[in-house]
Amino acid sequence: MKRIREEFLDKVEKVITLQEKNILEIGCGSGSRSIQIAKRCKHLTAIEPDKNLIDDALKINRADNIDYKIGSAEQLNFPNQAFNIVVFTLSLHHVPVGKMDQAINEAIRVIKHNGYIIFLEPTSDGNFFEAEIKFDACDGDEREQKTSAHEAIRNIKDAKQIAEISDETIFQFDSVEDFVKSLSPKKSITELEDFLRKTNFILKASRRIKIFQVV
Fold it and tell me: What does the pLDDT profile of the chain (215 residues) look like in tens digits?
């Protein structure tokens, strides 16, 4: 699987600059976006609760200006006003629903005055998400969690929204085997090849970017 189009950072930088900023990325996974963020900023601290993913990031997505750390969104181990920008990269909807507000408040706590918090969150549109549900692939059916995350973002009181941007990531798969290896489907496997051939092995995932300023 490879991402053949992703404009997330280009769209963000039409609103705010990442240059010379100290950034915290929450939910870095194995660092595939971390390495791209790091190319645009002064220093990136990237956290992820899964130690195995942090180990992968340290192996395949290292850079001199990235510090990968094990950590959770709802209890950030950083002092107040430590960062210019905090980025949730497809991660808020993975926080337990009852702790999403706490995670947002923690992010606001560690942002400098007039700094920014950026949310990249999936919608439920696009044939990538259709595949997640149909084949119980990747993270499966997360519609309830996505709705809760969007609601938590809408309820932010201590920061001002300055931008909302539609976004899309396009994935390409080399084969059915590539899809299986990348997304671990768990059901309806016999229908998978027909589904992928109808899409030319290209799947689209709609996202939403929201940018807030902490004032």
Answer: 999 999 999 999 999 999 999 999 999 999 999 999 999 999 999 999 999 999 999 999 999 999 999 999 999 999 999 999 999 999 999 999 999 999 999 999 999 999 999 999 999 999 999 999 999 999 999 999 999 999 999 999 999 999 999 999 999 999 999 999 999 999 999 999 999 999 999 999 999 999 999 98
How far is 69 from 79, CA to CA, in rounded Å? 15
Paired tokens of 184: 């671990």
Tokens of 171: 């994935």
Three-state DSSP state, 11: helix
Which tokens in the block code for residue 148? 């809760």
**Residue 56 CB contacts under 8 Å (≥ 6 apart), including other chains:** 30, 31
Distance CA 204, CA 201 (A): 10
DSSP string for 134-171: HHT-TT---HHHHHHHHHHHHT--SSEEEEEEEEEEEE
Measure Cα distances from 177 to 127, 172, 182 in Å. Answer: 18, 12, 8
What DSSP character marks residue 78?
S
